[in-house]
Design goal:
Layout: H1 12-27, H2 32-46, H3 52-62, H4 69-112, H5 119-144, H6 148-162, H7 167-185, H8 195-199, H9 203-215, H10 221-234, H11 239-253, H12 259-271, H13 279-311, H14 315-319, H15 322-350, H16 354-370, H17 374-392
Helix pairs in contact: 1-4, 2-4, 2-5, 3-4, 3-15, 4-13, 5-15, 5-16, 5-17, 6-7, 6-15, 7-15, 9-10, 10-13, 11-12, 12-13, 16-17
Length: 393
């Protein structure tokens, strides 16, 4: 009996990933917390590619490695959905729309000397983002806060975040505290696998000194690439931490940028959709045109693919470890605490009048009652905000 021709690989998951993350890369405004909320809405609630627990584990894992959290989450989802090709497709499709938008803005900035106005866009989008993140926190919190001790740990983490404690201290502290508590009640199995999770966050520290030394040279495309490769390899934290990194080297030490140019670059990363790290794209274009934008973008995002490729396949196996399972539970609770605090801070600015309160309330009703796709809500909020600002004249 002769065998038939080999069955061609199923490319539908890759196409689905490409469509989803191109859409998110074009509509995901509001920073990492909002991006994570929109991904949860899509891949857990609407498409059901992941369970709430699986999604929470990926969110926690992104906080244990350096780099842009929401981009790393997209890469994790791609790997879970379609293996190594999915890892590349999801990450690239989430980054590409933002990089192209930022490059166009950088071109206009170089030509006309100022940033385009975005007041109306942000005025309408921010209140919608509040509703999107609250929906995600409601769904994920129900899964993460499974016991009384976890609820108490989450409340303590929120208090520490409001008190200004470093977010890495909160994340790792919550994880270690829960793991130690588990250790008192159940002895971890023997073997060397438990040391691996602690080593993952230290990987960038091994390569950082060489990258930093290599970047400390006069301006050129290669030093530009190495500088952003260093930043992507060692940066934990928010966009404010990114600002500190960029200012120290690009403005103070090497004088590649002025203070005003750096602030404009950070602003572009904040008011465009997709990853905030596309600030690097803007800076690269200012310094060396399209080649500079391309190399800066590759440099800052490349480590995210590497770290996810290393850590992603280990998560399901490590979750079965009692010690690491407890550690990840603590990190997940702390991650949601960080999201809650960021949402509160954004809400104080975003909900500034009756129109924005109505946009947030209406979006919440549409999300919780009818589960409207969050991307459409963001686009609707942007249109409503621009219309409101135009009517005010």
């Amino acid at each position: 009996m002769t065998e038939g021709p080999p069955t061609p690989p199923d490319r539908r998951p890759l196409a689905e990933l490409a469509v989803l993350f191109l859409k998110l890369g074009t509509t995901a405004f509001g920073g990492p917390a909002a991006h994570i909320a929109m991904m949860e809405d899509e891949v857990v609630r609407r498409l059901q590619w992941l369970t709430h627990d699986e999604f929470l584990d990926l969110v926690g894992a992104t906080n244990l490695i350096p780099g842009p959290n929401s981009t790393e989450l997209a890469i994790h989802i791609g790997h879970r959905r379609a293996g190594w090709p999915g890892l590349l497709v999801a990450g690239a499709c989430f980054i590409l729309p933002a990089a192209l938008i930022v490059t166009a803005i950088a071109w206009a900035y170089v030509r006309f000397g100022r940033l385009p106005r975005a007041e109306g866009l942000l005025y309408g989008v921010k209140p919608v983002i509040i509703a999107v993140v609250l929906q995600a926190l409601w769904g994920l919190g129900g899964r993460a806060l499974k016991t009384g001790p976890l609820i108490v740990l989450g409340a303590v983490a929120v208090g520490l975040c409001f008190a200004g404690v470093n977010e890495l201290v909160v994340l790792f502290g919550a994880g270690l505290l829960l793991a130690l508590a588990r250790g008192f009640t159940r002895r971890a199995p023997a073997g060397g696998g438990e040391a691996l999770p602690a080593a993952v966050p230290l990987l960038p520290l091994a390569v950082a000194p060489g990258l930093m030394a290599a970047a400390a040279t006069p301006f050129g495309l290669w030093p530009l690439f190495l500088f952003f490769l260093k930043v992507g390899s060692i940066l934990f934290g928010s966009g404010y931490v990114l600002l500190a990194f960029l200012r120290a080297d690009l403005v103070d030490r090497w004088h590649w940028l002025t203070e005003g140019q750096l602030l404009d670059a950070i602003a572009v990363g904040q008011f465009t959709p997709g990853p905030v790290f596309t600030t690097a794209t803007f800076i690269g274009y200012l310094l060396a045109g399209t080649p500079g934008a391309t190399l800066a973008t590759l440099g800052i995002f490349l480590p995210a693919f590497v770290f996810v490729a290393i850590s992603g396949p280990l998560i399901p196996r490590l979750r079965r470890s009692p010690w690491f399972g407890a550690f990840l539970d603590g990190v997940n609770v702390a991650s949601l605490a960080l999201m809650a605090v960021v949402t509160w801070q954004l809400g104080r600015v975003a909900l500034c009048d009756g129109v924005t309160v109505a946009l947030a309330a209406g979006s919440g009703v549409l999300l919780f009652r009818w589960r409207v796709n969050s991307a459409w809500l963001v686009l609707g909020g942007a249109a409503a905000g621009c219309l409101a600002v135009w009517l005010r004249g």
